[in-house]
Amino acid sequence: MDRIRFGTDGWRGIIGDTFTFENLSIVAQATAEFVKREWDWEKGCFIGYDTRFFSEIFAEHVARVLAANGIKVFLSSDSVPTPFVTFDIVKNKRGFGIAITASHNPYQYNGYKLRTPEGGAAPSEITAEIEKRLDKVRPKFLEVEEAEKKGLVSFINLYPQYFEWVKEKINLSLIGKAGLRIVANPMHGATKDMAKLFLQPFGCHVEVINGNRDAFFGFKHPEPIEKNIKDLIIRVKDISADVGIATDGDGDRVGLVDERGNFVNPHQIYTLILLHLVKNKGFKGAIAKTVSTTSLLNRIGEKYGIEVYETGVGFKHIADLMAKGRIFMGGEESGGIGVSFHIPERDGLFSALLVLEYMVTKGKALSELVKEMFDEFGEHFYRREDIRVEHIEQAKRFVDFLRESSMDKFAGFSIVSKNFVDGAKFVLDNNAWILFRASGTEPLLRVYCEAPSRQLLDKILGYGKELVFKNLS
Fold this sequence. Notes:
Blueprint (H helix, E strand, L loop, with lengths): L5 E2 L2 E5 L6 H18 L6 E5 L5 H14 L4 E4 L6 H10 L3 E5 L8 E7 L8 H10 L10 H6 L3 E4 L2 H11 L2 H6 L3 E5 L8 H6 L5 E4 L21 H9 L4 E5 L6 E4 L5 E2 L1 H16 L4 E5 L5 H9 L2 E5 L3 H9 L5 E3 L5 E3 L8 H15 L3 H12 L3 E8 L3 H13 L4 E2 L2 E7 L4 E5 L4 E6 L5 E8 L2 H19 L1
């Protein structure tokens, strides 16, 4: 089954090509056989799904397979953000969970995310066991109607439970008293009008754009990065909003826009939330970041005595540390941030609410908080560029070439350390770094770079891209 491979978070494929009912049946059957041997499967499984093409049909298909294997399924009655799957496991003590989603990937894709009994993304050792079974299983099926009669499938609405849970974690009344003017952009994805439902009753004015279901996501990548949310930036400026909130297709990633229309990237969001938790909520201990995430976190860690773990890309590495109680927060450069007092999973809207809480606690605009952070810990300039290759293996070979290289300088600067935990990362003697890694789901070589000035960023990233094109050709 070479056409089915789990990446950084689940299995994804192009609908009608590798992501088919046949392949989905095989993955679901292999999952069922694994969980019946390894997990407390009698507690059942929650299945959620996003707003992509056929997601609800694919979710029912997985439910048919699990039910045929005697596993009780709690199937969402509507599309939900992926964090709901983890929330249900934690809150309602399910045995495991599944989300039908391809997250931020283009509209052609759909996917299958497996969540462990602790609520985190299934680590590589588990997905590897499932992959081993793919060419051996024979899927079983039970029609949903029959499964309902047998008590093996139930449809549930998680929204009321989730709303009450969040109200206990974040001071929505305090946010409401500030009367913030907010524009929310769910990018046609699973968070829909949730920001409005949370905040408007407490006194905020919330306008939602792109809140309708569109399986094509407006022909944009449903990823909340600056180039994909120009409409949000324009709308924030048009109505003089205090903040703009963007979440990705399945609601586990976030991007923000300040009151001036400036994009606030995930690195800045992570650091702002960390400062809020440390300064205003008294959190102590350790945090984690993926290898592609800002070094500002290390500077904050040094000041406040916080240990910083650096992991491979994929929140599953962070979720594992969180489930073991070793960290109180973790995040990645793509906008996925999680905190231990919520769920061991990324949650885009919850992260945005924490930033709003920080704003009203300090009584300052978002741009002011970002400036304060830079004044205290130094500016950072960051960019990621994706270079399309013929196939993923080509990108992997280039990364292997860098790992085997003996170079001690990069773009004219000395390399002070190398990190090969995921890809090839070079930390330079000028507080800059560059990382090359192959995408786990698409034929892309991702190049990440951070530097203390735009000029340095352009120079180092430009040199890195020249190196790529020279060796790929």
